[in-house]
Amino acid sequence: MKGILYSICIASVALALTAQGQQMQGSANVDVKAKARSTTRAQATTSTNANATVTSRRMHPNAQANANATATVNRSNTRVEHARTHREARRNATVNQKTTVRNKSRNNAMVNSHRGRNVAMVERMKTREKANVRNKSNVHTTVNVNDRTRFTTVTRITSNGRTFDRAAFRDRDHWHLHLGFHDRIFFVNRFSEVILINGCSFFLDDGIFWPAFITSESCVPRANVVFVAVV
Fold first, then answer.
1. Tell me: the pLDDT tens digits for 51-70?
2. CA–CA separation, 1 vs 144, rounded Å?
3. Cβ(79)–Cβ(87) under 8 Å?
4. Any idea where the domains of the chain sit in the sequence?
5. Vertex 113, ends 110 and 119: CA angle to 5°?
6. Looking at the whole model, is its pTM more than 0.85?
């Protein structure tokens, strides 16, 4: 009986020792695995950091190159813009100079044209003044109103106590008919007599009363109607 109890005790001790050993081995394995995982994580973190550093170092030269290229492009664009502005300024200056020369030439031409017309008008007026002087010294020039080469539709009328032969002058381009509108002083100073016939003004020259177109007067005579005084 004692032998059996002794054997059971020995077996129990052996089982206890075996269980303890397995428990210690499991704990050791857990520690080993934890250390292994920690080491792996540390290595991964170190590797990632190293790769990031290498990548950053590799990208840094490219970023610098891009910055340099951008600066070069900006400088080139600035030079191009300056060149374009300079060309436009020169082109505008050339256009302005040509415009100034053209305007000056046109103005000179206009001035010369006006001067030429004024000179021609003065000469015509001088010629007419000389003719008027002759006419004033010979006011009673005889005019044949029956000359059909000069007059048509002759009619005798009386106006303001005087008798006139009313006729249409054939030459509508005659200079007496194209003096234009002026004040009464213009006609009085240039011709021997200015009178009213049927309410309209006429001036005497070369024995004929021609229509006087006077500004501010209500009556405007017909352009080619003239009168010859009956003596």
1. 555 455 555 556 666 777 77
2. 197
3. no
4. 32-137, 151-229
5. 140
6. no
